[in-house]
Design a protein that fits this description.
Rossmann fold; three-stranded parallel β-sheet; binds guanosine-5'-triphosphate; binds magnesium ion
Length: 140
């Protein structure tokens, strides 16, 4: 079903040079289904490059098989992906607690930090105020 939805999506595009997949590496779905789909997609669409964004679990552990799942899914990424970006949940939690002083420290807070970081890497842009400052420095 996911595979069908993906091929329908590709049919509607003039060209699809790349695709990125965001997945947790430690659980069942992100690690198991994510690796399976990546393998299937790379077989079916040889011309599409895949960038995988993998979320590493907290070191102290929440899922009993997390280390095992992470090693297996990393192996699948190395075999099939053209680019791998790793996000460490421990580091993200530290940013939430120590830098942003978030009290709630929920998964939503962490995901907000992650999306901000990904947007900065994947869609780099300068906000209007900063742009004005840079250009006025260049003019002087
Ligand atoms: N930052 C972040 N980490 C997540 C998120 N979902 C899962 N994780 C991490 O991935 C680990 C595994 O989570 P699971 O929910 O078991 O993984 P899953 O891929 O959704 O697979 P299921 O077992 O089917 O739920 C968690 O212990 C977290 O460390 C999320 O939305 N944000
Ligand atoms: Mg889950």
């Amino acid at each position: 079903m996911i595979s069908n939805a993906y091929s329908k999506l590709l049919e509607n595009l003039d060209s699809a040079p790349g695709c990125f997949i965001l997945q947790s590496l430690a659980g069942g779905t992100g690690s198991g289904l994510g690796s399976y789909l990546l393998e299937e997609f790379t077989d079916l669409y040889e011309d599409v490059s895949f960038l995988n964004i993998g979320v590493l679990p907290h070191q102290t552990g929440e899922v009993i098989l997390q280390s095992y799942n992470t090693v297996l899914s990393m192996a699948s990424l190395y075999r099939n992906s053209q680019g791998i970006l790793l996000i460490e949940n421990d580091k993200i939690q530290e940013i939430c607690e120590k830098l942003l002083m978030k009290k709630s420290n929920s998964i939503n807070d962490m995901n907000e930090v992650i999306s901000h970081q990904l947007a900065s890497v994947l869609l780099p842009c300068i906000d209007a105020r900063r742009k004005k400052k840079i250009f006025s420095t260049c003019e002087n």
